[in-house]
Each structure stands twice: as structure tokens, then as C-alpha cells.
UniProtKB/TrEMBL annotation:
Residues 144-276 form the DUF7086 domain. Residues 108-119 have a biased composition (Basic residues). Residues 39-53 have a biased composition (Pro residues). The lineage of its organism: Eukaryota, Viridiplantae, Streptophyta, Embryophyta, Tracheophyta. It comes from the Eukaryota. It holds the Pfam family DUF7086. Residues 1-124 are annotated as: Disordered. Residues 1-14 have a biased composition (Basic and acidic residues). This is DUF7086 domain-containing protein.
């Protein structure tokens, strides 16, 4: 109860800030939607890489972006814009390199059948890996939506480090989220944009079978799009992710993703909490 009160109070005190923060982020989102890849504009020559992005850009994002009013065209997007990162679809070369290599030697291949490209494995839109996940990578539904969908419990796989039993465990969505959110509300001012020790060295659950404390380690799917982010958040076990996995989260949720693990871990905690409750004290 006390925790919940703290969280509510923190939320209220940040309301004004958050309204502003939300609207500026909203604007960013809108800009992202209206910024088309160069191939969609009357600009030569159509690069090979941005093509697969078009479906993702124009795909409506349910719940997360209800506003889609048109905005005036802005100057071309910077090359490091997050939407350009997924162009890894076609491999490591940068768009510029690809153009230099491909355009002179194989000019006829600059346009390919878009539907084929859209089906490739690196599309931004995916099949939701869990009922609580959306069809966007590293994105979960808001707490409000989850509760109204009747989802109150989040499941995930763990494996005991001692007896090696592998089993499913569950967290109560609302109470666990309030726990995490209260922790952030109380400690955020002292975190200095870096994950505290509680997050970098998470206390693992006690094993259900051998009762070893700090032993039930979450099993993190090797396929990054299958990672059970909400389960890891509620158990405050995101610190079990590798730096690469955390960077994947940040990359697909438009966060800066450079820096040491404690910084990227911090961004992941805040990013996920913000997905659950965008009015909470989760702005950087
Ligand atoms: Zn055990």
C-alpha cells in the first residue's frame, strides 16, 4: 500500500513534466511516421535498402499511436535515424556502400518485389510472441490494455542454477509492476541514468524444487524477437540479458543505445515501464 502511494504521489508531481514529455515524444512519433524513406519521394536514385521499411512505417500501430494526423514534410531524415537501423535486412553494408556497389553493376536490381521483401525475417512487424506482447519488436501492451484484455498474470521460463530444474513461473502483473514502478519513483533521482546494483546484479527467485535462494535464472530466448521482456521486467531480472539483447530492445524502441551495460539496462527498465504506463515517472 505504502509503495503504491509513493508511486501515485510521484506520478502526480510529474504530471506536468510528463504531459510535455509525452507530447514531444508524440511529435517525434508523428515525424517518424511522416518521414518517408528516400524511395518514397521524387528523389533519385531509389536505394535498395529502405524499401522493406515502407510497410513498417505505414503500418498502423495499434494502441500505441492513436494519433496519426498528417504533419508538414520535414527535411530528409538523418542517416542514423532509428528507422534506418533495420536495414540490416540486406546485410552489413551501409546504404551508401550498397548504392555504390549495386547501382553501377546491377542497375536493374534496384527495385525488387516489395511483398517478397516484406516477408523477410527482419520486418518491424512480427507475430506477437506472447499474449502480452504487441506485433512490434520489443514492445508490450499497456497495463491498461492488458488488464482490459483480462491478462493479470505473466508467465516465463526459468532454470535452477543448482538442481537444473527447468520450469514455468508466473508474476502478478499489477502488483509486480507497482513494485518496479515504486522502486523507480523512489530511486530515480539517485540513479543518474544508470541501473543500480539491484538491477545489474538481480536477486533471482528461490528455486521451487530445491529451494536454493537466488537460483531460478530466467531462460532468455536466443531469438531476440522472442524475448519475454515483460516477464524479465516484473521479476526485475532484465540484468540477466546480455548487452547485445538490451541494445536490441533500445534499438527497436527508439532509445539511444550506446554506452555501458548499466546505462542500456537503465534505459530498458524505463522504456518498458513507459510502455506499460506512459504517464508514469519513466522519462529519462
Ligand atoms: Zn533448484
Amino acid at each position: 500500500m505504502g509503495q503504491e502511494d509513493t508511486y501515485r504521489r510521484m506520478k502526480n508531481s510529474q504530471d506536468i513534466h510528463n504531459q510535455w514529455a509525452f507530447s514531444s515524444e508524440d511529435l517525434e512519433d508523428r515525424l517518424a511516421l511522416t518521414l518517408s524513406p528516400p524511395s518514397a519521394r521524387p528523389r533519385p536514385p531509389p536505394p535498395l535498402l529502405p524499401l522493406p521499411l515502407q510497410p513498417a512505417l505505414h503500418q498502423p500501430r495499434p494502441q500505441l499511436q492513436p494519433t496519426k494526423s498528417p504533419e508538414p514534410m520535414i527535411s530528409p531524415p538523418p542517416p542514423h535515424h532509428p528507422f534506418y537501423i533495420p536495414t540490416l535486412v540486406t546485410g552489413p553494408p551501409t546504404p551508401t556502400q550498397a548504392r555504390q556497389e549495386l547501382v553501377p553493376s546491377r542497375p536493374l536490381r534496384t527495385r525488387r518485389n516489395p511483398p517478397k521483401v516484406r516477408r523477410s525475417g527482419n520486418s518491424e512487424v512480427i507475430t506477437p510472441p506472447y499474449p502480452w506482447a504487441t506485433n512490434h519488436r520489443a514492445t508490450v501492451h499497456s497495463l491498461h490494455n492488458l488488464l482490459s484484455m483480462g491478462i493479470h498474470t505473466i508467465f516465463g521460463e526459468v532454470k535452477c542454477k543448482k538442481c537444473e530444474h527447468q520450469y514455468e513461473m508466473e508474476f502478478q502483473l499489477e502488483s509486480k509492476f507497482i513494485e518496479v514502478a515504486s522502486f523507480i519513483a523512489t530511486k530515480k533521482s539517485t540513479m543518474h541514468d544508470r541501473a543500480p546494483r539491484e538491477w545489474t546484479h538481480p536477486l533471482l527467485p528461490t528455486c521451487r524444487y530445491c529451494e536454493q535462494v537466488n537460483s531460478a535464472k530466467p531462460i532468455i530466448d536466443r531469438k531476440k524477437k522472442m524475448i519475454n521482456w515483460l516477464f524479465l521486467l516484473l521479476g526485475q531480472m532484465l540484468g540477466c540479458c546480455s548487452l547485445e539483447q538490451l541494445k536490441y530492445f533500445c534499438k527497436h524502441t527508439k532509445n539511444h543505445r550506446t554506452g555501458a551495460k548499466d546505462r542500456v539496462l537503465y534505459l530498458t527498465y524505463l522504456g518498458l515501464c513507459k510502455q506499460l504506463d506512459h504517464t508514469g515517472p519513466f522519462d529519462r
